[in-house]
Amino acid sequence: MRNLFLPFLLISFQVIAQQSPSKAQRTSIETQNRVIRQDVPMTNAIRKAFDAGTRDFSGTPGPNYWQLETDFTIKASLDPSTQTITGSEKILVRNSSPDDLGQIVLRLDHNVFRADVPRGTSKPAENTAGMIVTSIKVDGKSVDLNAAPARRNDPPTLKATGLTSTIATILLLEPIKAGSIAELEIEWHTKLPGGDKGRGHRMTQRFDSTLFQPTQWFPRLAKYDDLRGWETSLYLGPAEFFNNFGSFDVSITVPAGWIVSGTGVLQNPSEVLTPTAIQRLSTILDSDSEVTIVSAAEKGTGKSTLPGETLTWRFLADKVNDFAWATSDRFVWKATRAMIPGKGPVPIYEVYIPERARFFENALKNTKHALEFYSALWAPYPFPQLTLQDGPSAGMEYPMVINSNQGAADHETAHQWWPMMLGTNETRYGWMDEGFNQYMNVLSNAASRGVAYNLDGLGQSYGRISGSEDEAPLMWSANEAGSGYGFQTYQKTPLMLSMLGE
Question: Whose CB among 62, 236, 358, 391 lies 3.0–4.6 Å from 213's, allowing a Cys bridge?
């Protein structure tokens, strides 16, 4: 068959050549003539925010800035024999935006453990049925969880779609008016994956049936902000979260003898702890020494906790963007204090299983230094406590909780400033928390050793990656960065900041 396209292409080139002035072909990309863009390129989202007065070009919130807030009341119970959490929650949706919300977008991150969902480079330790939602109500009205696909002439119904995805949507019959409050009630259960086949943080959430480390474990509202409205990026595993701020009132029921740690402040120590443990807790803020609250020898009902069949631990936290916890029937519980400038002493706790004690020998000391150093460098630590939690994820952060041992204690503690205080969008711009964090870790690590920090060579090392077609720009969504996620999110920012610092 004759190629009819080739003659056409040759004729076209001849016509162009006849119409264009003759120019010598350049032999190099080097040139003395360079056009430099004078304006600052901005996305449609930030231009929209500037126009609305919710953001300011200086970087500060504008006069019309707002945040949607979500207040959670959660009751959950853990069955170690089935490795399953069963829970119910009420969410007060405080619509402080100027928009009437015609839908609610939910984050069901545990659906990433299902076998039929898209993932990034993460791999769950085991496939599960994911986040199984059994009931949803909006202002007391039941939501249809099994609605058939809508047809053109169907009357509107209060229904949910996407419940087997990491992003689900509730289609409302009546919008949540601007400035009003709606109540959302959800019942659900989820199995925590375990085993040795997990790849990536948050992909393994238990050691057998004796230690559980739940994260992103309950249905949450997606972030709604002034830039894009609902954040609807799928949870793929590597990229982290972007949540609304609010309060948490969380009650967790576990077998007696199991110690529970988590975000917030324990509200009912006399209902779960022995008098001995309570007395030891009362001494933490008196000195810089390390106090053992529950030792390895104090294991089991009536020793590590009060006796009984089950016990319910209740935690409160305010102005935070998530809640994480851990529990084990073998936890050793220790504590010390950090002195926060302008605030005074704040308790630091750690919980770990005895055979992993070597990973926690310097954990409290490292965390104490980090809390005090970053409080002096940036702003005083704002929360009432901080807890290190042992488990399969040894490098992950949540408000007032770091799933870490001594190895990553400094790095994970620094995350309490961003994103736990600042609330950056980790899903899209992971460099705004991980990258800045990596840079400030250089300063903290040097200070802990009593030496001057050294940034020499960081900027030059960019030459090892620059020019690679796999390199994503910083403002490319981290959720889509693929194999370049680690460099884009963690490593590139320190290189750039070191060059700016010069």
Answer: 391
Q: Residue 497 carries which side chain, given as an amino acid letter?
A: L
Give the type of residue at 314: R
CB 229 within 8 A of CB 44: no
For residue 363, how many other CB atoms are within 10 A of its CB? 23
Tokens of 184: 């959302």
Secondary structure of residue 141 in the 3-state scheme? strand
- What does the angle CA 378 – CA 382 – CA 383 come to, to the nearest 5 degrees? 140
Per residue in 40-51, pLDDT (tens digit) is 788 899 999 999
**Integer Cα distance of 335 and 328 in angstroms:** 17
> What's the pLDDT at 462?
86
Q: How far is it, in rounded angstroms, from Cα 333 to Cα 355? A: 14
In the three-class reduction of DSSP (H, G, I as helix; E, B as strand; rest coil), residue 169 is classed as strand
Residues of the chain below pLDDT 50: 5, 8-10, 12-13, 16
Contacts of 67 (CB under 8 A, 6+ apart): 96, 225, 244, 245
Question: Which of these, 334, 355, 337, lies nearest to 345 by C-alpha position?
Answer: 337
> Across the chain, which distance is largest between two alpha carbons, in Å?
95
d(CA 165, CA 186): 16
Q: Which helix (DSSP H) or strand (DSSP E) does residue 348 occupy?
A: strand 344-352
Rounded CA-CA distance 369/117 in Å is 41
**Nearest C-alpha neighbor of 378 from the set 430, 320, 443:** 443
Number of helices and strands (H, E) in the chain?
9, 24
Contact partners, residue 189, CB within 8 Å, separation at least 6: 84, 85, 86, 87, 132, 134
Taking the C-alpha atoms of residue 58 and residue 55, their distance in angstroms, rounded to an integer, is 9
Cα–Cα distance measured from residue 245 to residue 261, given in angstroms and rounded to the nearest whole number: 21
**Pairing relation of β-strands 310-320 and 265-266?**
antiparallel
Q: What is the DSSP letter of 478?
A: G
Q: Using H for helix, E for strand and C for coil, what is the string for 20-60?
A: CCCCCCCCCCCCCCCCCCCCCCCCHHHHHHHHHCCECCCCC
Contact of 260 with 213, CB cutoff 8 Å: no
Q: Which domains does the chain have, with CATH numbers?
A: 77-229 (2.60.40), 245-423 (no CATH), 433-440+450-502 (no CATH)
Tokens 């460098």 correspond to what residue?
Answer: 377
Three state DSSP letters for 195-247: CCCCECCCCCCEECCCEECCCCCCCEECCEECCCEECCCCCCCCCCCCCCEEE
| Dihedral, 420, 424, 428, 433 alpha carbons, nearest 10 | -70
What type of residue is 465? I
Look at residue 341 in the predicted model and tell me its pLDDT.
95
Distance CA 144, CA 497 (A): 51
> Which residue bears the tokens 């994911």?
130
- The pTM (predicted TM-score) of the whole model is 0.92
